[in-house]
What we know:
The protein has 318 residues and is of the alpha/beta class. It has helices at 45-52, 74-80, 96-106, 111-124, 140-151, 170-187, 198-204, 222-229, 243-254, 276-289, 304-312, and strands spanning 5-16, 19-30, 34-38, 60-65, 68-69, 81-84, 158-162, 190-194, 207-212, 215-220, 232-238, 259-264, 268-273, 294-300. It comes from Pueribacillus theae. GO terms for molecular function: ATP binding; ATP hydrolysis activity. Residues 7-238 form the ABC transporter domain.
Amino acid sequence: MCAHYEITLNDVSKIFGKKLALDKVSLKIKKGSIFGLIGPNGAGKSTLTSLLATLSLPDEGTVTISDLDVVSQVKQVRKKIGITFQEPSIFTTGTAWDNLFIAGKIYDMNISKIKEQGEYLLKEFNLNQVSNDLVGTYSGGMKRKLDIAISLLHKPEVLFLDEPTTGLDPESRNTLWQIISNISHREGTTIFVTTHYLEELNNVATDIALINNGKVLDVGTPKELINKLAADHIEIHYSRLNSSMIQKIDEYVSNMIEVINHKIKPTSLTIISSKGQQILSKLLKFLIRNEVEIEFSELKQATLNDVYLSNFTEKGDK
Length: 318
Ligand SMILES: Nc1ncnc2c1ncn2[C@@H]1O[C@H](COP(=O)(O)OP(=O)(O)OP(=O)(O)O)[C@@H](O)[C@H]1O
Ligand SMILES: [Mg+2]
């Protein structure tokens, strides 16, 4: 119905026995976006991914991909999507090209198309030098790259990645994300990804949904979620203050509307605020005006990890 959205879910539920794995999930995922789904173990991420990838059926609600219904138009949907599972699904006893040809046949592609797209992808994923080596000799990172390259062989409009970077070292994770986001930008591929490495999403995701107990708790850009659900942390240390100055500072901070919480001591002040940078510079000016001798100040800006911790862990947990 709407050209702007690639994937739409309306009140989608999935039940396993008595377990409600997805509970009336509604989402709209924009064409060409990199959409991240985050949540703790058992939240429903893989259930949602496999449902979108037409590998299981919803018990309630509707899902469309590129305006096609995933239940009644499954064949057409499958032509438009690619999926990479957490466990590599490649043949280690063959070469990269063997794997590409097998996948190409499954996708019903002719040999010249497989060669053309295969060469492009092997180059993009830096595997062209090893394309005729046995996959069994590849490192974990190379296997993962090949797995993703194969899922892009038939030029899908949507790529589903369930925990694509698990087990990779930080450099390999960065490289993989660069390649995936380059391809998404160049080809307009919509990427739906689940991951536990939240900081990766901060750099690449256009939108993120938080899921827990099968329910979507919030959706937004990384920045929106950080601003809404996490806060910056300010710490200022100064030479010992007398009680009247403590009271003066306490009053000043209490009147700052952006301050969520604060704690003042004779030698330090800590503040929780969604606008850390602004609060810190206002405060430093105020303290200097009042001739407070500042020893040091620190601003810890909120990250997606803080969003995760404040939503998915017990209060007070470290
Ligand atoms: N085939 C199944 N049969 C029964 N219960 C299932 C099945 N698949 C998933 N579940 C249950 O549904 C819930 C969601 O599981 P799911 O695998 O989607 O979580 P997840 O968010 O992917 O977790 P993880 O981060 O550990 O991969 C869990 O309680 C799980 O036990
Ligand atoms: Mg999972």
